[in-house]
Design goal:
Elements lengths: L2 E6 L8 H14 L3 E6 L5 H9 L5 E6 L1 H11 L7 E6 L5 H5 L6 H10 L1 E10 L2 E3 L2 E5 L4 H4 L2 H7 L1 H11 L6 E7 L2 E13 L3 E2 L2 E2 L13 E7 L4 H12 L8 E6 L1 E14 L2 E22 L9
Parallel strand pairs: 1-2, 1-3, 3-4
Antiparallel strand pairs: 5-6, 5-15, 7-9, 7-14, 8-9, 8-14, 9-12, 10-11, 12-13, 14-15
Length: 302
């Protein structure tokens, strides 16, 4: 009998999992798994339990938001033998699940754990921290971890845009030197995103087209400081329209990136605060973790 560690965040999203927990466990047990259940209580709980006990299981399944999944993956990356990972999204936006076409319905996602297929997915690291789909700095990036959970629960994706809009008059820029395989870029930037995803903040295609999730490369977007409101509007339009040929937007793919800044920059990792650094070394760990997703034939981006 295969062993499964089921980790869930009881506070993610609108706490909907509490009402379906019995159904989920019955599904897993009825499908022949020996299930151990673990409920997180504070930050890093998921990371610690995976590091401590992960290698004893065939599957690690988690339910929560992108932050909960980030903690699980951070634990998996510390293991030599990494179990398959199943994910049941229960957060506000769930960008990661969107990229892998994992169902939004919690019971449909649970069935995907049973019926889906493994997919080896690229994992990123920012200095000592791992990330699943995005590491970002600058404009709007603090919204994800500074917006109260209660506000997100009520307004969903709109909470991010409402909070972000209120920050526009206070946009900061940072003098950054960026080194990557293709050369060096230097300038003042209001936003930087290093992603492995088809969706960021609920917006599909924000970092470009033809994104591959297992090619060893990140999609990188750097937005230069605008000189006035008209240029800022052009930048926003370019991002929303997925057109990165604006003179203020750099867009490229890279496996390893180093960013050097004159001051400490606060980073967001998978929607959570990721630390503040003057130097950020970002690496792509190709196909480092295998996730369970729907049949490959149903997904066109890989």
């Amino acid at each position: 009998m295969e062993k499964m560690l089921f980790i869930y965040n009881p506070h993610a999203g609108k706490s909907a999992i509490k009402n379906r927990l019995s159904d989920i466990i019955e599904l897993f047990v009825g499908s022949g798994y020996e299930v151990t259940i673990y409920s997180t209580r504070e930050k890093k709980d998921a990371t610690n339990i995976v590091k401590e006990k992960g290698e004893a299981y065939d599957y690690i399944v988690c339910s929560g938001g992108d932050g909960t999944l980030n903690e699980v993956v951070d634990g998996l990356m510390a293991l030599e033998k990494r179990p398959l990972c199943g994910y049941m999204p229960a957060g506000t936006v769930n960008d990661f699940a969107s990229s892998l076409k994992i169902p939004k319905s919690i019971m449909a996602a649970a069935k995907n754990v049973i019926e889906g297929r493994p997919f080896a997915y690229d994992i990123g690291s920012l200095n000592a921290r791992h990330f699943n789909y995005v590491a970002a700095f600058g404009a709007f990036t603090a919204v994800a971890y500074e917006t109260p959970q209660s506000f997100k629960n009520v307004f969903g994706k709109l909470a991010y845009f409402m909070d972000g809009a209120m920050r526009i008059p206070n946009l900061e820029s940072y003098q950054v030197r960026v080194r990557y395989e293709g050369g060096v870029i230097e300038g003042r930037f209001i936003l930087g995103m290093i992603t492995n995803s088809n969706s960021v903040a609920g917006l599909k295609g924000l970092t470009g087209k033809d994104v591959k999730l297992n090619d060893g490369l990140f999609e990188v977007v750097l937005v230069k400081q605008p000189n006035n409101a008209i240029e800022l509007q052009a930048i926003i339009n370019g991002l929303l329209m997925r057109e990165h040929d604006d003179i203020h937007i750099y867009s490229f793919r890279a496996g390893n990136i180093e960013l050097l800044c004159e001051e400490e920059i606060a980073w967001t990792i998978d929607g959570e605060y990721g630390g503040s650094y003057k130097e950020a070394v970002i690496e792509n760990h190709r196909e480092a973790v295998s996730f369970i997703r729907p049949e490959v034939t149903a997904i066109s981006n890989v």
